[in-house]
Each structure stands twice: as C-alpha cells, then as structure tokens.
C-alpha cells in the first residue's frame, strides 16, 4: 500500500475524482433507464473493488512473524500530533499522501454500495466501511507481516466510504431522480389503457 505515495499527486487525485464522478453520473443515468441492471452492475463493481482493497491491504509484504507490530492508536499522531514534531517535512508529506490514498481506496466501495441498493441507507453503508476497515487492521495486527496498524487508516477509510456514499446519493438524487416515479407513471398509464380497452372490448 505504501507504494501508492509514488502515484498520488494533484493530477492523479483530480483524475481519480473525475473518473469517480463520471462513474457516479453514468450509474445515475442507468438507474433511471434500467434500475435492476444498474444495481446488478453496481454489485459486481463493488465486489471487484472489495477484492482490490483486500489485496492491497491484507497480502503480507514480509513473512508472517511473531514480532511486536507497530500500532498507532492516537488519531492524527503522524500528521499533527507529537510524533509529527520529530519528523522531516518529507515524512509528514508521505504520511498525508498515504492517508489520501487510504480515503480514495474506499470511495468506490461507498459509491457502488449505495448504487447497488434498492433503498440504500447512508448510515449502514458508512458503518459497513468502518467495520471493513477495522477488520483489515485487525488482520494486519494478527499477521504482523510488515504493515502498520494505524487508527488513522480506519478514519480515512471511513471518510472515503462516506464520500463515495454521498456522491452516489447525489447522483441518484439529481441525475437518477424520478426513476421510481417513472415506473409508477408507466404502470398507471398501462392500467388506464387496460381500463379503457375493457370498456369497449371487455
């Protein structure tokens, strides 16, 4: 996961956000046209993102060992806490970039989870992202294979999931708005047509 620091900069962040926004818009349009297919596609995309996240966070970087892992349980310790006072500017920048990557990694998780539900609940999805991040950190702690167990990872993962969820909610509310109303209107028109035909051909 730490290798992400070599690819995270202003340009890549902007490209990533643009790609996610375009995906959200596309799913919003698709939901209006074909809600069932859109939800199935969102589920598959969510599953693919989950596999990528687990591969990036759980696969050991070193052999699994019995040593004492490094655990950071103070929020913001490496960003603005006492530990940051003893770091070089480059080290603090690397930690910040890594946390941006942690947040970005969960944005698609939140987005696709929201777009995959019939009646998605923001609180439930964000809670799921929080639980997933805690499980990942717990696995890293047990494996002790060269990964840092950091509460900031959980915080930024959850913020990323929340951002994706809100983006999906916005796309559904603005672009995909009226999909349910369209279904009701079409059903009402079909019923009216059957009633009219029944008067003359019943």
Helix amount: over 70%
Total DSSP E strands: 2
Number of domains: 1
Rg for CA atoms: 22 Å
The ordered string of helix (H) and strand (E) elements is HHEHHEHH
Number of helices: 6
Strand content: under 5%
- Rounded average pLDDT: 81
Tell me the structural class. mainly alpha
Description:
About 70% of the residues lie in helices and about 0% in strands. It is mainly alpha-helical and about 200 residues long. It has one domain (about 1-200). A two-stranded parallel sheet has the order 1-2.
Task: Please outline the helices and strands.
Elements: H1 10-33, H2 35-58, E1 71-72, H3 89-116, H4 122-143, E2 149-150, H5 151-174, H6 179-201
Parallel strand pairs: 1-2
Helix pairs in contact: 1-2, 1-3, 1-5, 2-3, 3-4, 3-5, 4-5
Question: Brief description of this entry?
Answer:
With 202 residues, the protein is an all-alpha fold. The chain has one domain (2-201). It is built from 6 helices and 2 strands.
Structural descriptors:
two-stranded parallel sheet; mainly alpha
């Amino acid at each position: 996961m730490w290798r992400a620091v070599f690819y995270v900069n202003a340009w890549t962040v902007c490209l990533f956000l643009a790609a996610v926004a375009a995906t959200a818009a596309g799913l919003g349009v698709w939901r209006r046209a074909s809600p069932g297919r859109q939800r199935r596609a969102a589920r598959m995309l969510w599953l693919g993102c989950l596999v990528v996240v687990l591969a990036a966070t759980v696969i050991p970087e070193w052999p699994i060992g019995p040593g004492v892992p490094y655990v950071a349980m103070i929020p913001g310790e490496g960003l603005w806490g006492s530990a940051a006072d003893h770091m070089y500017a480059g080290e603090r920048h690397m930690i910040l970039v890594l946390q941006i990557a942690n947040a970005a990694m969960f944005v698609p998780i939140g987005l696709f989870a929201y777009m995959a539900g019939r009646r998605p609940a923001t609180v439930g999805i964000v809670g799921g992202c929080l639980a997933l991040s805690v499980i990942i950190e717990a696995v890293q702690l047990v494996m002790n294979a060269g990964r840092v167990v950091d509460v900031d990872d959980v915080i930024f993962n959850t913020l990323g999931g929340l951002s994706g969820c809100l983006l999906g909610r916005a796309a559904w509310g603005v672009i995909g708005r009226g999909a349910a109303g369209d279904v009701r209107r079409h059903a009402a028109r079909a019923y009216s047509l059957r009633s009219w035909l029944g008067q003359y051909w019943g």
